[in-house]
Amino acid sequence: MSAPFQTLAQFRDLLTQMPDADVAARVAAGGRNSQLTKPPGALGRLEEVSIWMAGWQGREKPQADKPQIVIFAGNHGIAARGVSAFPAEVTVQMVANFQAGGAAINQLARTYGADLVIKSLELDRPTADFTQGSAMTEADLVRALATGWEAVDTGADLLVVGEMGIGNTTAAAALSAALLGGMVSEWVGRGTGVDDAGLHRKAAVVAEGLARHGVALSDPMEALRCLGGREMAAMAGAIACARHARVPVILDGFICCASALVLARCVEGALDHCLAGHVSAEGAHPRLLAALNKEPLLNLGLRLGEGSGAALAIGVVQGAVACHNGMATFAEAGVSDG
Amino acid sequence: MSAPFQTLAQFRDLLTQMPDADVAARVAAGGRNSQLTKPPGALGRLEEVSIWMAGWQGREKPQADKPQIVIFAGNHGIAARGVSAFPAEVTVQMVANFQAGGAAINQLARTYGADLVIKSLELDRPTADFTQGSAMTEADLVRALATGWEAVDTGADLLVVGEMGIGNTTAAAALSAALLGGMVSEWVGRGTGVDDAGLHRKAAVVAEGLARHGVALSDPMEALRCLGGREMAAMAGAIACARHARVPVILDGFICCASALVLARCVEGALDHCLAGHVSAEGAHPRLLAALNKEPLLNLGLRLGEGSGAALAIGVVQGAVACHNGMATFAEAGVSDG
Hints:
2 copies of one chain form a homodimer. Chain A is α/β, with parallel strands linked by helices.
């Protein structure tokens, strides 16, 4: 699908015109849930997930057998500042690994029956070092948002967006600090495993970036343009597209959530169609989830990116939906309901 | 498989002759894990799970595509004491629901490709009210242990044991209190949703049971016989059989863990082949998991029983194993390893 915007202003307009969940479907699903052969509430968060899915899909019995996973890859000028445990060329090498089927996300996509799409965003043109200038031009930003939007299969019943980009925990930390405030040190973490010296460099680079762009950062889309990466903009575009198509989204880790945060800061409720798949081991992810008011489904100590935590959560959502759709009611089963 | 014991003494002997994990397979799996295309440790608990599975299955690349779920059902004399939100006839009604495919566990088994087996244990002969006498005779106990042992498919690559039995959170609370001490009120919870008056009755019944059996409870198998249920003994028997066959087990909620606790109290390390699938919403489950020194994979607020939380964890284990087996190494993928 071609993105229905050519300018940033048009994209901003689309964010103000987002559909809400189908209340009737959600109510019907809640009614069904209350009749299923289990004590009330005994399936815990699975019940909440199924009813939420029903609302966004607009049907009493939601489905989760056609999930789509889209991984966006981008390169960051900031990577040259020694903020990562891995060299910048790993981004393109990992894209080749995704394409060859050798990465974690390939195995998880297969396990849960998800369609996996890989989108590289101009890997040979890293964003600018955000301590020196804006990471992206407005044209770069719009192009990346559109790439994200266009990658979404609006016929999918569930979407996971993930990323690959050496240096992008630094960009996500800068973006989070810009949009949520707090100390830089609270937003900077070890990413793929940077050492103490690298962690210090990350914090210094983020502080420089925040100082460099100053008041421009008060606008969330401007903050994304100044500090973010193409893969981050693409995730935001994909999440916005999913909302317009009422496809429920599972958010992944720190970088995904920082990208989603841009939408939430533009329009209240912009992430109502999103579920937090997991909380990662990246130090600032819990803080970011709290700011988004999202309770993660899983907590498995992952810190890989690639959409891997959200992909694992697909398996849980599939279990939830299977129970909701397939269980007998008390009346059907002839079970006494207490 | 016919159980290799006819007496309780023979079962006790088997507990002292349990095989350990295959160290060479575990080491080989750890070596493989360290070469996969991800930062070290970035798959968090998935890595630990895969390596643990490799050790118990005795192969560098463990499998999780033939899981078995066995649900044991039993009735409890104690149910007549008003300790449950549901009447005792629900046990047999829910067994019919399992057999007809209408319960949560049926949907979860299908979702994760597990073979589901239902074993009813003399539902028309509830255990005795443990405040009046021993819940089971030694013959009852041995028969139930054997039913559990014989239900296990030793060719499965993963086992979940679950239960159904109105009144069994009361039995599990009594057993936990007997084996671990502490205040009765710390072990008694709302089960399927008992009200405040019912909760008081539960606590009183548990205290009566502990006082009634006194010093006999210092032997774990005797405690199981005096306070437990047939489905609980069967779970213990199944877990012991799995250990002898080196089939890894995923533990479910409070009742499953209380049953497993009996083995752990008989022989140190008896549950080394068991993973905690989840922590349930039953109040005392976290305390019980801590006593077992098990960190749960999932925390989704479930309190259903039926093996449902452990079944959900199968999905996570399948994702873990898929990553471990299917990912490319740094050398294979030509990715720089930092």
